[in-house]
Request: fold
Amino acid sequence: MYIKQVKDVLTLYGGLIILKVIMETKYQNLINYIQEQISDGQLGPGEKVPSENQLSEQFHISRQTVRKAIGTLEEDGLVQRIRGSGTYVSFDRRKNLEQRNSIAVVTTYVDSYIFPRILQGMQNTLFESGFSVQIYFTNNTLDREKSILKEEKIRKLNEGVQSAEKNVEKVKTYIETHFKEELTRESLASEVFMNPDYLSKLFKKNTGNSLMDYVTKVRIERAKELLERTVLPISEIAIETGYSNTAYFTKMFKKYTNGVTPREYRKGLGG
Reply:
C-alpha cells in the first residue's frame, strides 16, 4: 500500500514529496488534523474539541486510537481533558505549537517494503521529540538534490525572517497588555523562547526602540490617557501603569514629555 501511494505522488510532483502527507498513521493523522484546526484558529482557546465518538466516526478509527491521540496532544499542552465534560483547547496552545521546530530529511528513493517503515519510524520519533518532519526524495539525481537543498535553504531563511517578525509583534502585544506587571528583558524573552540579547537586537532593528524603552513609552502613553480621562490621584496612576514609586514615575514621565510633570500635564488640559 505504501509503495503505490509513494509512486503516485512521485509521478504527480516529479520526485518532490512531503512524506508526512503520505505515510502518517491514522493516529498521527488525527493529531495533525487537530493541530491544524488549532493553528488555523478554527478551534480557539477554551473551545471544545469534537467528542471521541465524533472523531472515531470521522476518521474511521477506534475510540482507543482517538484517546491515544488526544493524550499526546494533552502532553504537548495543546488540549486539556476535563472529566465528565470533554476535551478543550488550552489557552496557551499557540506557545506550544510554535515551539515545534522542523527537520528536513533528503533521501534517494523508496523501492522496498521496509524503507517506508523506517522513514515512518523516524518521523514518529522526531514528532514525539517535538519536531515536525519534511522528507524529500531525489530519485538519485544530483540536480534534484541540489534543487531540494536550495529550496529548503530558502524556506528556512524565509521562516527565520517571518518568525523574527512574529516574535517582535508578540512581544509588542505582550508589553501592551501586561505593562502593569514587572517587565524585564529576561521575562519578555522567555515569552518567545529567545535569548534576551538576541531579542533585544531584533526588537531594536524592527522597531527602532530598545525593549525597555518601548515598555516605558507604552506606560507613559497609558498614563497620559488616565490623566486626560480620569481624576485618579497621580500615585494611583503610577501604580496603574506599572510604577510602585510615584517619584520614579514622575521622573520617567518628565523624560518622555520634554520635562513636563504628570501634574503639569493634567493642569495643561484644564484638569
